[in-house]
TrEMBL record:
It comes from Streptomyces hundungensis. One of its GO terms (biological process) is response to stress. Residues 28-127 form the HTH marR-type domain. Signal peptide: none annotated. GO terms for molecular function: DNA-binding transcription factor activity. This is HTH marR-type domain-containing protein. SUPFAM superfamilies: Winged helix' DNA-binding domain.
Length: 147
């Protein structure tokens, strides 16, 4: 008999998709510029002062090409811009435009609402416990030699 118990990475992925789908639906309902889940994730890992495409790819866990495509889509919509990196003549930083900043603030408000809706469904105590657990440092992933 096969176990129906799902592993933690699957559950975390489902939780992330719940927020992502709620965010994208709310943005669409508000008439915001449509973005893909990958583009929304890119926005979430972008530093206020700007981030290189390579660093965005690392933070998102995607290839540099995937991050580059997401950036170019968002640049085309006017939500992001590329500017010279003062630390490197060869690199460019990706930053939010003023419209991108507005969209980022709007997304933050929507995510707060989604978290409040989650608290209504599962209880504030459960949401607080989930947040505390996920904010606790886990350390580096174990290496095969440490098993």
């Amino acid at each position: 008999m096969q176990s129906t118990r799902r592993n933690l990475p699957q559950l975390l992925g489902d939780a992330r998709r719940w927020f992502e789908e709620g965010l994208l639906a709310a943005l669409e309902a508000a008439g915001a510029t449509p973005v893909s889940p990958t583009q929304a994730q890119l926005f979430a890992v972008l530093d206020d002062q700007g981030t290189t495409v390579s660093e965005l790819a690392r933070r998102m866990g995607v290839t540099r090409q995937t991050a580059h495509q997401a950036v170019h889509g968002l640049v085309a919509t006017g939500l992001l811009q590329q500017v010279p990196d003062p630390a490197s003549a060869r690199q460019r930083l990706i930053r939010r435009t003023s419209e991108g900043e507005r969209a980022h603030r709007q997304a933050g408000i929507i995510l707060d609402r989604l978290e409040a809706q989650l608290a209504e469904r599962i209880g504030q105590e459960a949401v607080d416990a989930l947040r505390a657990t996920l904010e606790t440092p886990w350390g580096r992933p174990p290496s095969p030699s440490s098993e």
